[in-house]
Amino acid sequence: MALRVPGPRDADRRTDPADVTVLLAAEAAVLEGRLGVLRKAIAERDARIHAVGSVQRAREALMPGTGPAAASSP
Fold it and tell me: Which domain holds residue 47?
C-alpha cells in the first residue's frame, strides 16, 4: 500500500480520519526508526569519548608533567 502525502492542492479537501491515522502512524514509525539510529550513534560517540579520555588519563599517569596541568604551569 503506497501512502500519498497530501500536497498544497489537498488543503481544501476533507481528509478521511482513517487515512490520516494511517499516515501519522507511518510517519511515527519512520521517526522512531530515525530516533533509534540517532540514539545508537550518540551512545557510540559517548563510548568513544570515554575511551579516549581513559587513554589520556593513563598516559598522564605514566608520564607526569605531560597533562593539561603541566601545560599551564610556569
Answer: 28-61
